[in-house]
Write a structure and sequence with these properties.
Family: Belongs to the AHA1 family.
Distance between the termini: 17 Å
InterPro entries: ASHA1/2-like_C, START-like_dom_sf
Largest sheet: 8 strands, antiparallel
Mean pLDDT: 95
CATH architecture: 2-Layer Sandwich
Protein name: SRPBCC domain-containing protein
CATH superfamily: START domain
Order of helices and strands: EEHHEEEEEEHH
Low-confidence stretches: none
Pfam families: AHSA1 (PF08327)
Shape: globular
């Protein structure tokens, strides 16, 4: 039986934000590495049954991560994360958006700022992600697209990966 870990998914329609707080049974360095290393991201950053495929990643201020979430049948959903500011093992800020395989953003789908912080909790760690959208319509679009369900599944995959990495 898995330990019960904190998982909050809070919607603030006045500020057009999602706040996702998730506790992990691993130290902060390992959780940081899982969020910032291409080889590890490819093992967990997609809801089941999709997988992640990185095309390019340059984890630094001004860098980016271009990746696809791929269905078992092969259909690809491309996204681009542009890293704005990185403070190693503490936090990073990035702009997230849907795009094509070349990284050209889709102006018809929402783009958001992700502020991700990493905190020690005794033998565990806590990741807080605040996702800010330009408008209520953008926020509601991602909620309708299944953001909560997708994040729940994706973070469960991270739990599984962290257990394997700790052995």
């Amino acid at each position: 039986m898995k330990n019960i870990m904190q998982f909050d998914f809070l919607v603030d329609k006045e500020k057009n934000t999602l706040t996702i707080r998730r506790e992990f049974a691993a130290d902060r360095q390992l959780v940081w590495d899982a969020h910032t290393t291409r080889e590890l991201l490819d093992q967990w950053f997609a809801p089941r049954p999709l997988i992640t495929k990185t095309k390019s990643m340059d984890f630094r201020d001004g860098g980016h991560w271009l990746y696809a979430m791929v269905e078992p049948e092969g259909k690809e959903y491309w996204a681009r994360l542009d890293y704005v500011k990185i403070q190693p093992i503490e936090k990073y800020t990035a702009l997230d958006g849907f795009c094509d395989e070349t990284g050209t953003l889709n102006p018809n789908l929402p783009r958001a700022q992700w502020d991700v912080t990493f905190e020690d909790l005794a033998q565990h760690s806590l990741v807080q992600t605040i996702v800010s959208y330009r408008s209520l319509a953008d926020l509601e679009t991602v909620i309708q697209m299944g953001m909560k369900e997708g994040m729940t599944s994706t973070l469960e995959r991270l739990d599984d990966l962290l257990l394997k990495l700790k052995k």
